[in-house]
Write a structure and sequence with these properties.
Elements: H1 8-25, H2 37-81, H3 88-102, H4 104-114, H5 116-134, H6 140-154, H7 157-168, H8 174-200, H9 212-230, H10 240-254, H11 264-271, H12 274-304, H13 309-314, H14 318-337, H15 341-360, H16 364-391, H17 396-419, H18 430-462
Organism: Melanomma pulvis-pyrius CBS 109.77
Protein name: Pantothenate transporter
Pfam families: MFS_1
């Protein structure tokens, strides 16, 4: 089933078969349903309970593997590898995003041809091996090389998963699914600091294995490799009938024709759409804010708020749990009211308020409350921004391009988030905090302006003053 969009020839044959059958039987045209509600529910249920959970687990491990360096940092990594000298820690963080940005689109191109089952399996095992290797390094340079490879291998997971979700579900089904996907994965990040603290207590022998930070990488790397080995058994194929229903239930809503893989020139042409640049700005802000908090939250709790090492690790988890609950609630509300922009801006403003509280409140407890608001506001807008971009894209084959482009630019946000907080700015980190606050202002302004433009285009199309939006008759944006 994960390869629903992988076989153009099979899809064409399916469409031809059902078109001919309908015509011969005198049934409605292929734009009408030729399946029962029970069949449709069964197909969606298969996606919800087989592939979807596995994607959540694997993405959770990927978030854990790219951010566990912050937990290792305060567990002794900084001292043993001298990451506290100059900008070494920032370099080790940002190098991840170079490969991550460069290999987003190529990996998305491969997954639509090779198939999710084989390509994702390879990527998961490969990045798990990189994380495992970090447990045995003796130089910050070797650690940096492994972080670069980690970025290359992790690049294909998120856009590939979003592409599968966007191809499977209808317009106002996506926000809940993308949010559940992201927040279920975020659950592993919520307990990541506590898990990392427990792993850091492991001591073996008298040599390097007495360093607890090594076991954070070793155990989590092994867990990812195991997940990669069992992933093929969950990324199952679907039969011809299920493919037909899955494709048509989405394409009927958009009044599209057959779905085909875009060529390289068609892909480049799709990327010239200026709206993708706006969606990418939204995702850039969301990603940079998320990464800045993820990489520096334990350090801010330890140095900025004065908590002990143990408390800094344990207190990193509750803000994520709060973010998960609130984000799922807001995603449900967004689908319910069939509007995106009020939710996106509310979440952005919440993040902004939280950051100001962290920065200027005096009592540690109040500043910690601000961390709850900031974590929720920034984390929630990652899946919400992706759903926003997917909902404004009519053609299924273009959605994968939009997702990959957004996440590629989001990698640049990761570079920003990993560099705006400098060790020399401790304990308040004023430049980093104000840069994040300014970006949240930008997010709200861009989202409002873009949504008003899309609403105007819908109105003009309803009045017959605009041709088919996105080149698809009957399509309307979902701002």
């Amino acid at each position: 089933m994960a390869n629903i969009m992988d076989d153009k020839h099979d899809i064409a044959q399916i469409e031809k078969t059902y078109t001919n059958t309908s015509s011969q039987a005198g049934d409605p045209a292929p734009e009408q349903h030729d399946w029962t509600p029970e069949e449709e529910r069964a197909v969606v249920r298969k996606a919800d309970w087989r592939v979807f959970p596995m994607l959540c687990i694997v993405f959770g491990l990927s978030l854990l593997d790219r951010t566990n360096i912050s937990a290792a940092y305060i567990a002794g990594l900084a001292k043993d590898l001298r990451l506290d000298i100059g900008s070494r820690y920032n370099i080790a963080l940002l190098i991840f995003f170079i490969g991550y940005a460069l290999f987003e689109l190529p990996s998305n191109y491969i997954i639509r041809r090779l198939g999710a089952r084989y390509w994702l399996t390879f990527l998961i095992i490969a990045w798990g091996a990189c994380v495992l290797g970090m447990g045995f390094v003796h130089s910050w340079k070797t650690l940096t090389i492994l972080r670069a490879l980690l970025g290359i291998f992790e690049a294909g997971l998120f856009p590939g998963a979003v592409y599968i979700i966007g191809s499977w579900y209808r317009q106002f089904e996506t926000a809940k699914r993308v949010s559940i996907f992201y927040m279920a994965a975020l659950l592993t990040s919520a307990f990541g600091p506590i898990f990392a603290y427990a792993l850091s207590l492991i001591r073996v022998g008298d040599g390097m294995y007495r360093s607890g930070w090594r076991w954070i990488f070793i155990i989590e790397g092994i867990a990812t490799i195991v997940a990669g080995c069992i992933a093929p058994f969950f990324l199952i194929e679907c039969n011809a009938r299920e493919k037909h229903i899955a494709i048509k239930r989405v394409s009927l809503e958009k009044q599209e024709g057959d779905i085909e893989h875009p060529t390289l020139m068609q892909t480049l042409s799709m990327l010239m759409d200026w709206k993708i640049g706006v969606y990418s700005i939204q995702y850039f802000v969301a990603a940079s804010s998320v990464y800045s908090l993820a990489f520096f939250q334990p350090i801010i709790l330890r140095q900025g708020m004065g908590f002990s090492y143990t408390l800094a690790q344990v207190l990193s988890s509750p803000p994520y749990l709060f973010a998960i609950i609130m984000s799922l609630g807001f995603a449900w509300l967004s689908d319910k009211i069939k509007m995106r922009w009020p939710i996106l801006i509310t979440q952005s403003v919440t993040a902004l308020v939280g950051l100001l509280i962290i920065l200027y409140a005096k009592p540690p407890g109040v500043r910690y409350f601000g961390l709850f608001l900031a974590t929720f506001g920034t984390q929630a807008n990652v899946p919400a921004s992706l759903a926003y971009g997917q909902n404004q894209t009519a053609k299924v084959q273009k959605r994968g391009i939009v997702a990959a482009a957004m996440i590629s630019v989001g990698a640049a946000g990761g570079i920003t988030g990993s560099t705006i907080f400098q060790s020399k700015d401790a304990p308040l980190y004023l430049p980093g905090m104000w840069a994040t606050i300014a970006m949240q202002f930008l997010y709200s302004i861009v989202t409002f302006c873009m949504s008003m433009y899309l609403k105007r285009m819908n109105r003009l199309a309803d009045e017959g003053k605009r041709p088919a939006l996105e080149g698809v008759e009957g399509f309307r944006y979902a701002p």
